[in-house]
Structure formats: structure tokens, C-alpha cells
Amino acid sequence: CRLAARARLSVVTEEKMAIYFDEEKKIFYLESGCVSYVMQISQFGFLTQLYYGKRIPREDVSYVEKLYDRGSEAVVFGAPSRRYSPNVITSEYPSYGKGDFRECAFIPRGADGARVFEGKVKGFEILQEKPTIPGMPSLYGGGETLVVTLEDEISKVQVDLYYSVYDELDAIARRAVIKNNADTPLVLDRAYSFSLDLPAGSYKVITQYGAHMRERTPEVTPLMHGIMSVDSKRGATSLHSSCFMALAAKDADEESGDVYGFNLIYSGSFRLTAEQSPYDMVRVLGGINDFDFSWKLLPGESFYTPEAAMVYSGKGLGAMSRTFHDLYRGYIINKRFVNAVRPIVINNWEATYFNFDIPKLCSIIDTVKDSGIDMFVLDDGWFGRRDSDRSSLGDWTVNKDKLKGDLSALIDYVHNAGMKFGLWFEPEMVSEDSDIYREHPDWAIKIPYRDAAPSRDQLVFDLTKPQVRDYVVKAVNSILSQYKIDYVKWDMNRNITEIYSDGLPADGQKEIMHRYILGVYEICERIINGHPDVFFEGCASGGGRFDAAMAYYFPQIWTSDDTDANERTRIQYGTSLCYPLSMMSCHVSICPNHGTARTTPFKTRGDIAHLGATGYELDTTQITPEELAQIRRQVTDYKAMQDLVLHGDLYRLDNPFTSNYFCEELVKKDKTECVVTCYRRLMEVNSAVKRVYLRGLDPDMKYRVEENGMVLSGAVLMNVGLIPEFGGGDFMTAVYHIKKAGN
Ligand code: GLA
């Protein structure tokens, strides 16, 4: 499709445009990678959806808007017949109140309390440069952006719908900007990022739920008549659900079938909904959660929704994931580091928890200093009087008594050992037992005359207040400028309750959750972009804020506090639905595992942790010489495959939720190399011979399997398959490095 498209493009100038408007038929054609997205300005002036899917020629497909008389349904005012009911017409930004009774994207409330928006197309613009969103991360541009302006003539509410396309990716970015052109205030009770109507059909819905140490479990449910939603009301995308939803054809699987994936580029409370109407019409929509949300717009003010990434795949979930991975690696993840070789870290959290001093940390460093590990990360407990998680957040001063020296002594020791130094912060939080809270109790989000619900014995800084943001930036920056810090682990360990800020009026209280996230983005911008050479890793009790907007700042995020290799196969598999392996931090820890009490082989822990940004998190003074030797071997192996982790195409060959196996293949873009990691959960006696059918290779290329010396064509590896040799026992891995023969 891409080659054909390019050949055509070189002939006809107007076809060069990835976004094209047919004046006569009033049809927009958006072309992204191998995808077409077709909309029309209807005879009544509304923006309707005609087609989204595999690339089609620019023909008139408006015949799909086939309307029947639906009895007593409300109809568009002035329509020539009763067939024109908003409840069966597709809409690019549906609103409530004029007869569309499906879920809507937009609920504006005028000064008189009326809540109707009749948005008609007022104009459009095609931009060559993709605009950014003020105060919020969004995808960088890859192609053109269409902005369609809708306006309600009576309320003077304007909605600009943004659609950005990518020349080489089957992805479209969407968002909305709402502007109050009236001379009275407007309140937004809902302002989603996108809405899409798909044709009637049998779909299944793929979402993800989770919990602490069990993040991003995929769930597949048939789309029923009625409404299905996933959301977060926590002020973070959360451990408990992901801002991802896909609608897939009933028979779609990993390798085949139509899949429409949606992911919000947002880190706060969200909602994603799929609805099948009684007429079988299907709608997917979402954005900022409108639960406990409203936003006041004074005359002339605008509201910017976060962006949503939409990916279409005609080749199943695997291809959808690969497009999301390419989209995020190419267009959102922190540009300074997305392609940089990631440091292999050793982190002291599971090694010592809060119980450490410089001599203890140095003894750990001594054991690994010439193992190839690049970075020592000092986790929680180095500041204030922090000997447990009950105190000192917000007091970012080095606890020299506890450390038995200044932090600089440890940093010098690390640097002299040839390693870099990383430090843990939790900038957004404050402990009630802290000097800063005693001085400024009004700097935390809480209701002053109520007790605050304890959660890890900490409160959330009120980042809606500029003076609090300034304090946090200053406090973190002061440590970063005082000490030679190469890396920061930025944690966030509680969700927001008692949502109240005395910095906002009574009618502004429902703005807090979104203003909080805008505050997070602002402090990230000021701290992270203020230190361009420091590598920042994200974390939120593990994967409690693992989203594409965070990736704009944090090229990698601690995937889960669960470091058990068996559990990790599931968590990493689920995370890979949307996010590339390079975004996932994965560590080898001690066994029995602190979370599950399970013992898995050291090799297995390494092999599973290699499927991401790898590292170690254990007391290396307490492990055997053989295990220390294994660390050296693992580091060497990882360095050899890191390029594939950063840039390769991921093929998920076995699903650990439905089988005894987990198997991932990383293929170099030019298909000359791949690594296959196979994991068998339980040893089964007299079991079937396991075969792993590789994917994504060149069928005609000859490959050499390093581990057994076999030379086989891509066709054989993909159709006859490999037989992994696990040896005996549970929780075993077999890894194969496969390269173009003759290299
Ligand atoms: C969270 C993180 C852990 C660790 C602790 C420190 O739980 O996910 O990795 O940093 O906080 O308190």
C-alpha cells in the first residue's frame, strides 16, 4: 500500500496531500500510512463520519449514510423527512440535547443553564506543521493536520476538531479545542478528545484492568448493546485501569482481523466508552473523565482536550501494537533519550528498603563495579528523617546522619567505580510529618476541616497552586544542582482524595483533577527540561501512571513493583499492547521473590528482565559467586540485544494469560536479525513438543540460529518453527539469537 501510494503521489499534485477536501462533495479524505479516514459535511452542515479503515481510493462513499424512518425519534429541524434523526446519523463530535441519545463527546452549559450544542461546520484549515497543546504533551507531527471548526450559531460555542496524520504509520491523532465566543461564561461538563462512529458489526472490546503489582491485564468482552466504559477517577491513569481501548472484529486475533485501537495521551482521570445502540450502530469515545469534572470558560477563553491516538490494524492486535510502538518511539517519547542506549541500573530498594548507609551501599557497589552495570540508583530514604514511608516527603534535604556522610561521598564512590549515579524523588507528595507540611498545611490537597484519608501516610501537594509548583521545582532543582546526579527516578505513590483547593472558588473545585495534571506537566517541564543531560525514569508504585503523556518526559517507566519473573511475563505482555519495550523498566530481584515468595531461576529472571530497559534490584553482597558471574554474562548478553529492545518490531508469539508459555520475538527493522525469548511456566510430564513459529522474517533470507548452529530460511523458521529446549523444571526460559547467515 505504501509503495503504491507513493507511486501515485508522484504523478498528481493534489494527491500528494495526505488530507484532501473534495469541494463538490464536501468530503474530507485523511490518509495516514495505509489508512483512510473519510468525513463529510452533511447537507445540514454537520460533520459526519463515513469510513475509517484500510486505505481506499478517494471515491464518494456517502451512500453509507443510509437512513430509515425510525418512528418517533427526534429529527433534525427542517429536515425533508423523518429519516434524518440525530440518533442514527454519525457524528464526529456528538453532543446531547438535539435527539442523539447515544453517549456524547461534549456537554457545554450556557450561563442560563441550557446544554445544547448544534455544531455546524464553519470552516477548516489544513496545517503543514502540527501545533502543540499549551501545557500538555502531545505527539510530534508526522504529516498534515486538519482543523475543522464547528460553531453553534446561537450559543457562540466553537469547537475546533484536530486530526493529524502520519505519512508512514497507520495512526491518526485527534483532539478538540473549545472556545467560548459568547459574552457570558460557559461551563464544560464534558469535553472529550474524540468520538468515532463505526458501522454495525460484531465487535469485541479489549480493555485493561489491574491493581498494585498486577498492572494492565487485558480483558476481552463482546460488545453488547448498551454502554461499556473503563475509567480512572484517581487523578492518575492508575494501576487499576489503562487509558486504552480497542474494538476488534469478533474473529480478530494476534495475527489477523480488523482492530481499532485508542489510547489517550493523558496522565489523569479519564474515561473511554464503547456503545452499541439499539440500531446496532457503534460509537467509541473518550477523554478526560467528566465524573466530578467541570471547567469554566470566561468569554474568549479556550479549553484544550488532551490528544487521543487512534491506530487501525487490518492484521490483528500484533500489528496494532507495533504501530503504537513506532508512533510513540517516533513521536512522543522524550526525544533526547528515545534512541539512546539505556543505562543498566542497580537499584537498592529491594536490597535494603529504608535500612542503609553509605558503607552498606558501597559494599553493594563493590560487588558489581566491573560487571558492566552502568548506574547505581539510590532509592527512597536518603532525605529528611525518612526511615519509613511515614515521614519527610517534601523535605528534600540530605540526611547526612543516616547516610553517615554527605551524598557527595557516595556519588564520588559511584563515579570512581566507573558508574553513574541516580537518585529517587517523589516530587508531587508531602508527608504530614514533614517540616514543609508543618509550615504550609494548606499546600496539600485536602479539606481543611476534615481528616485526610491516609494513603501510604502521605498527602498530595496542591499543584494547582503556583507557589507550590515553585517550591517543588526549587526543592528538586536545588539537589540536582548541588550534586552530580545523572539520573532521577520520579515516583508517585498515592491517588487523590478530599479533592479540594482553597486556591480555587467553589465553582472551580471540579477543575482540580485536570489542573493537578497540568501542574504535574508544568513541574516536569521545568525540572526535566531544565536538566537536559539528566535521564528521568517515571514510576508510580510501579505502573500507576504508565501512559504516553508521561513518556514525553520519562523515556522509561518502572513497569510494576512486582519483580517476580512469572508475574512479569503477564504484566509486560499486557503493557506491550500499547507501549514499546523500551518504555518498560524491568529488574532482576532476589528469590524467594518479595512479592510472591516464588523462586525462579536466576537465568529466567534475567531473560524476562531483558525484554525491556533492564536492571538489578537486589543485595549483591548476599548472592553466590555463580549468581554474580551470571550478572556479568547477562549484562553482556543484554548489551548485545539492546538495539532490538530499543528499535525492533515486537511479535508476541504466546500469550501467558491463556497458555503455559510466554514467547516474544524482537525483529530488527531490516529483518536481518531477531531474538526469541521463550518461557515455560510449568514443566509438564509427557507434554506435547512445543513449537514456536517465528514471525516478521524475510522468507527468502537464510538465518543462523546462534544457539544450535542451524541455518534455516525465514520461511522454515516461520512455518516449521523452532523447538525451544527448556531443560527440566518450572519457570524455564530458552533464548535464541538469530542472524542473517554469513554475517
Ligand atoms: C514505590 C516504587 C518502588 C520504590 C518505593 C520507594 O513503591 O514503585 O520502586 O521506589 O516506592 O518507597
Characterization of this structure:
It is built from 14 helices and 37 strands. With 743 residues, it is an alpha+beta fold. β7 and β8 form a beta hairpin. Mean pLDDT is 96; it is low at 1-13. The longest helix has 23 residues, at 625-647. It binds alpha-D-galactopyranose. Alpha-D-galactopyranose (GLA) is lined by residues 349, 379-380, 389, 424, 491, 493, 539, 541-542, 558, 561. Residues 349, 379-380, 389, 424, 491, 493, 539, 541-542, 558, 561 line the site of alpha-D-galactopyranose.
List keywords for this structure.
single chain; 743 residues; alpha+beta; 10-stranded antiparallel sheet; 14 helices; 20% helix; globular; binds alpha-D-galactopyranose
Total of helices: 14
* Overall mean pLDDT: 96
In terms of DSSP E residues, the strand content is: 25-35%
Biggest sheet, in brief?
A: 10 strands, antiparallel
- Uncertain parts: 1-13
Distance between the termini: 31 Å
Bound molecules: alpha-D-galactopyranose
How would the global form be characterised? globular
Calculate Rg over CA atoms: 27 Å
Helix content: 10-25%
Number of strands: 37
**Helix-and-strand structural type:** alpha+beta
In terms of topology, how is this protein built?
Blueprint: H1 2-9, E1 19-22, E2 27-32, E3 35-41, E4 47-54, E5 106-109, E6 120-127, E7 145-151, E8 157-165, E9 171-180, E10 186-191, E11 194-198, E12 203-209, E13 217-222, E14 226-231, E15 244-249, E16 259-265, E17 270-276, E18 282-288, E19 295-297, E20 302-304, E21 307-313, H2 316-331, E22 345-347, H3 349-352, H4 358-368, E23 375-378, H5 400-403, H6 407-416, E24 420-425, E25 429-430, H7 435-439, E26 459-460, H8 466-482, E27 487-490, H9 512-528, E28 535-538, H10 548-553, E29 556-558, H11 565-575, E30 584-589, H12 602-609, E31 613-617, H13 625-647, E32 649-654, E33 661-667, E34 673-680, E35 702-705, E36 711-713, H14 714-719, E37 732-740
Parallel strand pairs: 22-23, 22-31, 23-24, 24-27, 27-28, 28-29, 29-30, 30-31
Antiparallel strand pairs: 1-2, 2-3, 3-4, 5-10, 6-7, 7-8, 8-9, 9-20, 9-21, 10-19, 11-18, 12-13, 12-15, 14-17, 15-16, 16-21, 17-18, 25-26, 32-33, 33-34, 34-37, 35-36, 35-37
Helix pairs in contact: 4-6, 8-9, 12-13
This protein binds alpha-D-galactopyranose.
Alpha-D-galactopyranose binds next to loops.
